[in-house]
Amino acid sequence: MTRQDSPFEAAVKELCAGSEEAVWDFIETYGPHIQRVVRRRLNHKLRSKFDSIDFVQMVWVSFFATPDRLAQFDKPEDVIRYLVVMARNKVVEESRRRFEYEKHNVSRERPLEQPEIVATSEHRSDSPSQIAIARERWQEMIEGEPERNRRILEMRMNGSTFVEISERLGIHERTARQVIYKLATTSSE
Q1: Do 96 and 151 sit in the same domain of this protein?
Q2: pTM
Q3: Domain extent at residue 152
């Protein structure tokens, strides 16, 4: 008398045989277990970078990369246990990468500042003495500087971007940035 395969064993045989339909059935059956683990484990700071589906897909890629692994599972609970551990490891691995190493550390990220909107009626104007002091400092800052550096500084003070300055003066954007940085650091000393 031949033994009848359980539904799980039949599904594993179909997977090992390369049935695409069996793969999709397997993903639909066991995918929610992976997603549940990922959603529980994924740090809130990483949620803007990754969706839980990203990790689910990573788990499936790793799982199906070695199809002979399927034969080691005797029952569905073994598969679930294995996939849950794999999902947890993927999340932990990415968390370490994003929190412990400097290159991708999400703890170093800062939100963009919102510009403060000041009503023109509330904005106080500078006093005549403040304007005179600012003009003196301006003259001291550009004194002895080449004409190109003076033009860069004037254009920047008038609101031009570094790209606009580089296009108008025919220089590299980085050069304009370096000139402004040099003038700012020498004037603050």
Answers
A1: no
A2: 0.50
A3: 128-187
